[in-house]
Specification:
By secondary structure, the chain is mostly helical. Helices cover 74% and strands 0% of the residues. It starts with a helix and ends with a helix. The model has no long low-confidence stretch (mean pLDDT 91).
């Protein structure tokens, strides 16, 4: 139906969307934070700093 390269691109794009959606649900709903904050690099730097200090 679709060429192999097109399937790979579509799967990659859908995977990135699913990852971002899952991060937003986990951080925003389960973690009770603001869902869009998960896309902010300073949030990830803060998480990395917490992990490295322990």
């Amino acid at each position: 139906m679709f060429p192999l390269w097109a399937r790979i691109i579509v799967i990659t794009i859908l995977s990135v969307i699913a990852l971002a959606g899952g991060l937003m649900v986990g951080y925003g709903i389960i973690g009770e934070g603001k869902p869009t904050d998960v896309l902010d690099p300073s949030t990830w730097q803060h998480i990395i700093d917490i992990v490295k200090t322990e």
